[in-house]
Every structure is written in C-alpha cells, then in structure tokens.
Design a protein that fits this description.
Layout (H helix, E strand, L loop, with lengths): L4 E5 L3 H12 L8 E6 L8 H13 L7 E6 L6 H12 L5 E4 L4 E3 L3 H12 L5 E5 L15 E4 L8 E4 H12 L2 H4 L1 H6 L8 H12 L13 H10 L3 E5 L4 E3 L48 H11 L4 H16 L2 H25 L1
C-alpha cells in the first residue's frame, strides 16, 4: 500500500522547494499522492514567502508524483493546527499517511522505507507509528539491521501513522489522558521508561497548573514520547536517518539557530542538524531488530540529549510532592494559580 505524503507550509519558499525536490528523487514518488496544505499569512512578514510558494505550487511540474493536491487555507491556522487539520482531512479518505514539514529534506529511499515499515508493523498493537528521523548516535542494534523499535522519541521530523492507531493516540492525548494518568504513571514506574527530558516536560506541564499543558494535550513530539512510556507503545526508528532538518538555521518554527562548536562534545544543543548525513541508499529492504534493548538505547539518547542534574532532581521532587497531595488539594492549588493568572492579565490590560 502506498501512503500519501502530507506537507503543511506557509512562507519558507527555499526550504519547501528543497523538501519537494528530495521527494521527487524518491523511486516510489510516482506511486505517491502529495498533499500540500498552504496556510494563510498571519503577518506581513509572511506575505512574500507565501506568494512565492503559491506561485510555485501553481506553476511547477509535479508529474513525478502519482497525484498532487493543494489545500488553500482561507485564514491563518498556525503551524500545529494546519498540520493537525491536514491529518484529519487525510484520514477522511486514507487509512495511513506520511507527515513532513517544509524544512525537512529526505533521503531517496524515504518513501519506500515509510511504506515498507507501515506495511510491516500495521498488525503489531504495540507499534504506534514510524519515524523517519534518527539521531546522530551509535545505536545498540544488530549490525545487519536497519530499523528498530524504541520508546523514547516521538520526533515529528517525518512520521508515518495508521488512521486507527493515530485516532486512538490522539483521542487519549487530546482528552487529557496524560494529565489524568500522571499519578499512576509516577507510582507505576513509568517515569523510568522516559528520557530525562520527557520526565522534566511531563512534570512541569502537569504540576505547575494550566501553563504548558497545551504541549501534552495535543499531538506534539513532547506528548507522543510521554505517551509511549505511559501506554507501553513503540515507534519504529531507522538506524540511519532518512531525514535532515534544515530549520536550525533560524527559519524553523520551533527550532533555535544552532552554531556547532567542533571543540565541544556533540550533544542535542550544539549539533548541526542541517548538515547531518542521511541514508544514501536508493532502495530499502526492511530488516528490523526486534530484540534491540530499549533501556540501553534510551540511555544512549539520554547522553546525547542530557538534562542538567539539578533540573531533573527538582522535577522528580516536585512529582513526588504532587502525587502525595490529595486530588482536592491539587485542584484547589491549580484553581488558585489560574485565578492569579487571570488577575495579572486583568491588571496588565488596565495598565494599557
């Protein structure tokens, strides 16, 4: 089965052209439907890039693909809502999809990899999706394998979903399941299945009231990696990345500009993602290491994406205190915090 590729965009013309050119170079492009969702400009700074993209989508040759469609938004949705709405629109017609963003460049076997993995793992109830991105570390996997299941990364830098599994995950997350199950996850040892950053994000989002909960109440990389641990699910990851993120030059919506310092040890905060080597093979033959050690690979990633020890320690203490309080005490505490925020907001408006 061949999955459609979904591509939300707004104004990053150069990045979008690179992304689509890399998709055209895929051997399975002619079997693939490409659907682009062009968001509407929010500010004047978006207008020039938006117009360039609109013209490109109307005049460029997209015959490399099985079909090509553009969805024109009539108002500004924003990056996340444009992406999520495109997913909902896709699942009214298809039962699976591949999601990209316009600052991603893919390998020439990316589409085949995603389709093969979506076919291979569809019937496995523990596998919730397929990732196209892999971090620049040496994973502990069988040397003859080219993909493995993991429970610590929910990267949306190229990701494949099945409709039924996506809906199961999104309903749980959007209904506040991660917040409701926080105490059970903490007391049931699920924190040990998360990376240190996931623990910190989870604790800060839940224990500090309303602020920050948006990241774990909708489909984001933060919510999905927490979901994997809480619900004992897996995402398939390639050993060698199929995706390169160009957004860390300062153009990415949620990416800070990174200047790599070759004199320092490589980590998630200083790595040059825009120059990361991607898989150079033209074709992909699935060889999944189903025996890959989840804990070992999680530890490898933790070293690359390290959290300051004092930050993690504070988060764990906060979670311990939070779970020791009664539900009514927590509700009253969060209500008081909400009232203080509303009060501050009213005062600020009065000053204006």
């Amino acid at each position: 089965m061949y999955s459609p590729v979904l591509l939300p965009t707004l104004c990053r013309y150069d990045s979008l052209v690179k992304c689509i050119d890399s998709l055209k170079a895929n051997a399975w492009a002619d079997k693939t439907d490409l659907i682009v969702a062009l968001d509407y400009p929010k500010t004047k700074t978006h207008t020039e890039g938006y117009r360039a993209i609109k013209n490109y989508l109307c005049t460029e040759d997209f015959s490399a693909f099985n079909s090509f469609q553009v969805i024109h938004r009539r108002r500004n949705y924003g990056a996340i809502d444009n992406f999520l709405e495109l997913l909902r629109e896709c699942f009214s017609k298809y039962d699976r999809c591949i999601c990209l963003f316009d600052d991603l460049e893919v390998s020439s076997n990316f589409i085949q990899y995603m389709d093969e993995m979506l076919d291979e793992c569809e019937q496995d109830p523990q596998v919730a999706g397929v990732l196209g991105y892999s971090y620049p570390v040496r994973w502990e996997v069988d040397r003859n394998c080219n993909a493995f299941p993991q429970d610590f990364s929910g990267s949306i830098w190229g990701i494949g979903f099945w409709k039924n599994k996506y809906l199961e995950m999104s309903r749980y997350i959007e209904d506040g399941g991660l917040v409701k199950d926080f105490e059970e996850a903490h007391n049931g040892g699920r924190f040990s299945k998360m990376t240190d950053w996931a623990v910190s994000d989870y604790v800060n989002s839940v224990c500090y009231g309303v602020a920050g909960k948006s990241f774990i109440n909708q489909i984001t990389d933060i919510s999905m990696r927490i979901y994997l641990a809480v619900k004992d699910k897996r995402f398939i990851m390639p050993v060698t990345t199929k995706v390169r993120n160009l957004g860390f030059d300062g153009t990415g919506a949620y990416c800070e500009k990174i200047v790599m310092d070759e004199n320092k040890e490589i980590n998630s905060q200083n790595y040059s993602y825009g120059t990361q080597p991607i898989d150079g093979e033209r074709a992909f033959v699935p060889r999944i290491d189903w025996e890959a050690n989840l804990s070992v690979n999680r530890g490898i990633f933790n070293e690359f994406d390290a959290v300051p020890s004092e930050k993690l320690s504070a988060a764990l203490k906060r979670a311990e205190w939070y779970c020791s309080q009664s539900r009514s005490s927590r509700s009253m505490l969060n209500f008081k915090k909400l009232c203080r925020r509303i009060s501050r907001g009213i005062r600020n408006r009065l000053r204006l």
